[in-house]
UniProtKB/TrEMBL annotation:
It comes from Candidatus Methanoperedens nitratireducens. Its EC number is 1.2.1.5. One of its GO terms (molecular function) is aldehyde dehydrogenase [NAD(P)+] activity. It comes from the Archaea. It holds the Pfam family Aldedh. It is an enzyme of class 1 (oxidoreductase). The active site is at residue 248. Gene3D superfamilies: Aldehyde Dehydrogenase, Chain A, domain 1 (3.40.605.10), Aldehyde Dehydrogenase, Chain A, domain 2 (3.40.309.10). This is Aldehyde dehydrogenase, thermostable. Keywords: Oxidoreductase. Homotetramer. The lineage of its organism: Archaea, Methanobacteriati, Methanobacteriota, Stenosarchaea group, Methanomicrobia. Residues 12-474 form the Aldehyde dehydrogenase domain. Belongs to the aldehyde dehydrogenase family.
Length: 494
């Protein structure tokens, strides 16, 4: 059995406790690796090594930092298939999707590498003669990164690459269910030439290792992706030390299907949006709000298509839907199906735990007659469960879309331009797709949500650099005399 250690100060080291935990294939329940479980002491060692590395790394010219990232991107590309297969074995999602996950990591690595030649500030005229003013971007310091299991390499790369190109050093804790891809990513960056101490990997439970990162006084900022409950707790705790916190949290993403929609297109999109990644995407389509005129036809055709999805091991190329990640997630999905039935929603497809293999499988499930205030229409289930909700008009549909605490992604299917623009204007979400499902972000555009989905930051795109840099404003006076700005002297003649 392969055993993986912590990566601190450029070396793979034992956990100070000597304890390990198991990494389990959710399709077969085989133990695929043993991981060293970090302690608070290990987190402190990681923070210390990130501190020691900061001065040199932050003073390395950004284009030189970019060269290391370019090398890493090429290595990720060369190893794409191998990494995708490893991810399917560790996390369960089907190969087509794990290839996409690795591709996201490749794309953000190239993108961030290129940012090394930009890291743009601004220049602007001064109020005074012989004075120059500008902004420059500075790294924040040691950053703590904490990531979830559903995108085992894409989300770590979305955080690590922009943080590195900006000159920060890192202490990183991946999800306990999926550390292997993070280990491979760290190995690749080290082989690409990342100096020791710049990126440190600690593994273990959120409640101990994650909490130690959140509370460590040497860490200046936390970037977290995960559930709302954990995010809220982190925000509260980290703010005591005035740490900068960026949160990318859950979703309950609506798809609106209008009576003028291209129905075949909408069904393709909903099928993929709801059951892709077994419904375990923060952007998954979990509510479809359908115009009442077309609901019967839409429902009939969607059920027929869903019945054809093949459940099984993601490593088999013919599988459409893989397992859910672990037993507690499986039980959570089953619990919500019961809640839906008790609330009076009509279960028209699926609803059962099944065992095509020993692992954690749940049938693709559809509820109809769902009213917007039911718990299955309000709370994030994070599994293959879809609620169909009827609406009589666009206004009503948008009202339903906005009736949840979340605001990550959203989508509308319509052939009408006015409907599209009303949706863009009125849906409370960080992302709106027109005639496409709510999943499938592109890395050069900002990603994030409103309301309980986050605290206003956006990852990827140019905003990724904002997340990991401080802006410094510079006034450069070359007049050789004291010149007072207008704040200090009454304005004379222009
Ligand atoms: P989670 O339970 O909040 O865990 C996320 C990460 O936080 C894991 O690494 C976890 O460690 C760690 N953690 C748990 N408790 C902690 C604590 N007290 N202090 C510090 N770290 C702690 O979420 P999840 O179940 O892994 O992921 C699913 C959630 O992520 C869903 O709500 C989904 O919508 C959201 N998500 C959001 C986005 C987005 O960009 N908006 C993207 C993907 C997923 P362990 O693994 O050891 O528990």
């Amino acid at each position: 059995m392969q055993e993986y250690k912590l990566f601190i100060n450029g070396e793979w080291v034992n956990s100070s406790s000597g304890e390990t935990f198991d990494d389990i294939n959710p399709a077969t329940l085989e133990v695929i690796a043993k991981l060293h479980k970090a302690t608070e002491e290990d987190v402190q060692r990681a923070v210390d090594s990130a501190h020691d590395a900061f001065e040199k790394w932050s003073r390395t010219p950004a284009p030189s930092r970019g060269k290391i990232l370019f090398r890493a991107a090429r290595m990720l590309e060369e190893r794409k298939e191998e990494l995708a297969r490893l991810m399917t074995i560790e996390m369960g999602k089907i190969l087509k999707e794990t290839r996409g996950d690795v591709q996201e990591a490749i794309d953000i690595t190239y993108y961030a590498a290129g940012e090394g030649r930009r890291l743009l500030g601004e220049t602007t005229p001064s109020e005074l003669p012989d004075k120059f003013s500008m902004t420059v971007r500075r790294p924040i310091g040691v950053i703590g990164l904490i990531t979830p299991w559903n995108f085992p390499i894409a989300i770590p790369a979305w955080k690590i690459m922009p943080a590195l190109i900006s000159g920060n050093t890192i202490v990183f804790k991946p999800a306990s269910d999926t550390p292997l891809l993070s280990i491979e990513l760290v190995k690749i960056l080290a082989e690409a030439g990342l100096p020791k101490g710049v990126l440190n990997l600690v593994m273990g439970e959120g409640s101990t290792v994650g909490s130690a990162i959140v509370h460590n006084k040497g860490i200046r900022a936390i970037s977290f992706t995960g559930s709302v409950d954990t995010g809220k707790w982190i925000l509260g705790e980290a703010s005591r030390d005035m740490k900068r916190v960026s949160l990318e949290l859950g979703g309950k993403n609506p798809v609106i299907v209008m009576d003028d929609a291209n129905l075949a297109l909408a069904i393709d999109g909903v099928l993929w949006g709801a059951f892709g990644t077994t419904g375990q995407r923060c952007t998954a389509a979990s509510r479809v709000i359908v115009h009442e005129k077309i609901l019967p036809e839409f429902q009939k055709r969607l059920i027929e298509r869903t019945k054809q999805l093949r459940l099984g091991n993601g490593i088999d190329e013919t599988t459409d839907v893989g397992p859910v990640i672990n037993n507690s997630q499986l039980q959570k999905v089953a619990k919500y199906v019961n809640i839906g039935k008790e609330e009076g929603a009509k279960l028209v497809l699926g609803g059962n735990i099944v065992k095509p293999l020993p692992g954690y499988f749940f049938e693709p499930t559809i509820f109809t007659d769902v009213s917007p205030d039911m718990r299955i229409a309000q709370e994030e289930i994070f599994g293959p469960v879809l609620s169909l909700i009827s609406a009589a008009s666009l206004d009503e549909a948008i009202g339903i879309a906005n009736s949840v605490i979340y605001g990550l992604s959203s989508s509308i299917y319509t052939e009408n331009i006015k409907n599209s623009f009303m949706a863009i204007e009125k849906i409370e979400a960080g992302i709106t797709y027109i005639n496409a499902p709510p999943i499938g972000a592109e890395i050069h555009l900002p990603f994030g949500g409103v309301k309980a989905t986050g605290n206003g930051t956006r990852e990827a795109g140019t905003t990724a650099i904002e997340e990991f840099t401080e802006l410094k404003t510079v006034y450069f006076d070359y007049s050789g005399k004291l010149q007072k700005a207008q704040i200090d002297v009454a304005q004379e003649k222009l």
